[in-house]
Amino acid sequence: LLGRVPCITVKLVLDLLWQSTEATKGMKGQEQRDMRFGRIFGLMALVQSGIVTRASTTAVDMRKIVMELAAIGAKQWYLREIAYVTLTSMVPMLGKFGIRDELITMFVAVALDKGAVTTADELLLALRLRRQYPGYDWHTALGQWHGRHMLGARNAGRVAQVLCEQTEGGAQGWCPQLHSVWDEIFDLYFNRARADEVAMQVPMEFELLWERVVEQGLFAPGATQGRRHRGFMLLERLLPHLSEETVPALMTPNVVRAMSDNVSAKAKSPLAQVGLRTVERLSVVCEGNPKVGLAVLTHLLNQKSTIGSGERGSLRTLMANRIVATLDSEAIVGYVEYLQQVFTVPGRARGREGVADPRHVANVSEKSVEKQRAWAVDQMIRVARFGQLPITDELTTGVLRFVAMQAAFSDVRDAKAPAPPLTAATRDYCALALVNLVGELSRQAEPSRAKTAEPDEQTGTARGAAGRARDGTAWATAALALVADKAPRGAKVVLHGFGETRAVLGEMLGELRAMAKQAGKLTGGAAQRVQALELLLGNVCVAAAFAANPQTQAEYLEVAPEVR
Questions:
Q1: What's the confidence (pLDDT) of residue 265?
Q2: How far apart are CA 236 and CA 220, in angstroms?
Q3: Strand, helix or coil at 555?
């Protein structure tokens, strides 16, 4: 109605609104609240009608609206967000005034605490103002915020403090829904139409934002139930954007721990209910996308746990079992190939569903590259060692070979060169991971293989036994052969001290193969003893071959002849 009558001015509406909604001291509390609601609803109608942009509107009228909305938000916490949402809806209108910069300056002084920006409401308004009017002198106006974007890495601590602030509505900070500022943040990171803005202004990577706000804030040890409640709502809100690329950023340790500790099918608290709903929806996403399911599974279960571990009937265990039931060998192979892509080209592989567009995230820091590569190796190894998954020997061999190649060789002619090149720290990480994987495979029998294994025609023992592939080859022997045999064509060996140990390792590899052959001619306990010695010697030799410390390497090489 306001917009249809051209003679109505902002000043006229404001005068009538002030007369009709004035709260006096003689009113009861409920009556004063009614006056406040009436005034803010009137201001919302005034802004939404569009008459604010009429030529009759003066700077005084605009200042009166802004000051009243800011005052209402400052006095009553339950009206603060709606007051600032109304202010935010005024942002596009400022450009239609000839005094645009003066109005922006007034917004900063009145509604943004002179540029301090200390609340989520103020952050929402500031982000929208900077997005709408990038040419304004924001460096001066928001002097306490550094960089080209308020969500830049230099502001990570300040952003986390603002977004983790507790609602004033109670001791636990309960809030029935996410703050509107998250709509702006999600749009920045997941709206591909804003890719150019991301490339030019360089906000912090989403992984860093999630780590500082959610992992170290909302789900931090000792966080209030209200904060954890908001954390689950955030995770639930991000499920539509969940992919194998975004799982590492979202399924962080404290998030996984919260899913295990704070979610209950029996509890009736708001925290338990929102957690249960989030876990259920996450399970549905994982069932529909096997790659996402595998990525979530390897984060749900740490390196020492198995799918059936944990408290009986715990939601984390039940969720893991639901994910496993949907997986097949093809999905697992596809996920491992994706992990190898992440390792080889971290920036491009990670950015596909991350920050807007892959071409804008290929240039990542060395620390970020090392972190992504370490994550990819950890994920491959967790997949390879989970005996409950339908894993083939070919897949385990492929993981062993890939990790060994990265740890031991450079300039492999027939393999895609990592970009950027591997650092010494990454190679050492791969070497340690390989040793741990071989040791884990040597200690564990894999149920999915053992149950379907048939007796070996030569040894009479089941294939797929502890430490061995179905053809009887010990995993330790297979790993050692990757470096002790002839190196790949054109490759350069980069293992520590390999020039001095190569002859000894080659001799030990020959002994291991002779022991395997000898065990094939024996039966019963005699064959088992030889096989056990082969596993022991093989693990010692693998540890020696991939040791980063010369003293440790020498100790293993000294023990190897004694085992033989």
A1: 58
A2: 18
A3: helix
pLDDT band of residue 311 (cuts 50, 70, 90) is very low
pLDDT of residue 166: 53
Q: Provide the pLDDT for residue 505.
A: 87
Ramachandran region, residue 24 (left: φ > 0; alpha: ψ -120 to 50; beta: rest): beta
Residue 283: Cβ within 10 Å count = 19
Q: To which H or E segment does residue 324 belong?
A: helix 315-325
Rounded Cα gap, residues 62 and 106, in angstroms: 9
Apex 185 CA angle, 222 and 346, nearest 5: 85
pLDDT for the residue numbered 291: 83
Q: What span, in angstroms and rounded, lies between the C-alpha atoms of 43 and 13?
A: 9
Q: Which amino acid is present at 316?
A: R
Output b/e per residue, 541-561; b: 16+ Cβ within 10 A: bbbbbbbbeeeebeebbebbe
DSSP code at position 95: T
Q: Is 168 exposed, middle or buried (0-12, 13-18, 19+ CB in 10 A)?
A: exposed
Beta-bridge partner residues of 462: 455
Q: Assign residue 109 a region: left if phi > 0, alpha if psi is -120 to 50, beta otherwise?
A: alpha
Residue in the structure block whose two tokens are 């002994």: 511
- Rg of the chain, C-alpha, whole Å: 31
Residue 320 has pLDDT above 80, yes or no: no
Q: List, in sequence order, the alpha helices (H) in 239-289.
A: 247-250, 253-261, 270-288
Residues 515 and 529: their CA atoms lie apart, in Å, by 10
Going from the C-alpha of 342 to that of each of 349, 357, 557, the distances in angstroms are 5, 16, 35
Place of tokens 């895609």: 416
**Per-residue confidence (pLDDT) for residue 327, from 0 to 100:** 79
Mean pLDDT computed over 391-396: 87
Query: SS3 for 533?
Result: helix
Q: pLDDT by residue (tens digit) across 344-384?
A: 887 644 443 333 333 333 445 677 788 889 988 988 888 88
How distant, in Å, are the alpha carbons of 88, 138, 478 from that of 181? 10, 19, 54
**pLDDT (tens digit per residue) in 34-58:** 888 899 999 999 898 888 888 888 9
Contacts of 426 (CB under 8 A, 6+ apart): 370, 373, 374, 406
Question: Tokens 């920036």 — which residue?
Answer: 347
Q: Which two tokens stand for residue 515?
A: 């022991």
Nearest to 265 by CA among 256, 281, 254, 276: 276
Query: What residues contact 540, with CB distance under 8 A and at least 6 apart?
Result: 556, 559, 560, 563
Task: Please state which of the ranges 99-113, 251-265, 505-519, 542-556 shows the lowest mean pLDDT.
Answer: 251-265
237, exposed or middle or buried, with CB in 10 Å at 0-12, 13-18, 19+?
A: middle
- Phi, psi (deg, nearest 5) at residue 455: -60, 140
φ and ψ at residue 191, rounded to 5 degrees: -95, 110
